[in-house]
Amino acid sequence: MDGLIIKKKWLDLIVSGKKTIEIRGSNTKKRNETIYLLESGTHRVVATAVISSAYPISYSNWADERDKHCVYITYADLRKRYKTPYAWVLSKIEPIEDIWYYEHPQGAMIWVKDVQPIDEMKDERIRYGY
Question: Is the distance from CB of 38 to CB of 111 less than 8 angstroms?
Fold first, then answer.
């Protein structure tokens, strides 16, 4: 199963159910399949989710989508970050109760392919920083 990398601040809002869309700069083909939600910078797998749909965000619908995204910026500012912003609708969010980590491949910034848990020794080295 593949994993989507998300910064902790936003991931916490997704897992709590407050943030239901993730804005990205491109469309995705990973619709209606379960993915992992990965906490950026920590190698931690936090939850599973499904991207139930994806669509381009326009000026006319940004006001409605902003609350679902939990980022209160203008459409002009959104376009500065993403040439063509897309809303990825996240559903079926299931937090992972056990703490587990994954091997993060060098250069991965949006997706990690075929996420696998790592062994306990590596797990402790990541967790405790040695």
Answer: no
CA distances from residue 24 to 12, 55, 109 in whole angstroms, order as listed: 18, 10, 12
Quick: pLDDT tens for 96-121: 988 889 988 889 999 999 998 776 55
Q: What are phi and psi of 69, to 5 degrees?
A: -90, -20
Question: Which tokens in the block code for residue 66?
Answer: 């902003």
pTM for this model (two decimals): 0.89
Residues 6+ apart with CB under 8 A from 42: 8, 101, 126
Longest dimension (CA), the chain: 51
What sign results for the dihedral spanned by CA atoms 63, 69, 70, 76?
Answer: negative
Q: Are 91 and 33 in contact (CB under 8 A)?
A: no
Residues with Cβ < 8 Å from 126, sequence gap 6 or more? 42, 43, 101, 118
What does the DSSP 8-state code read for residue 129? T
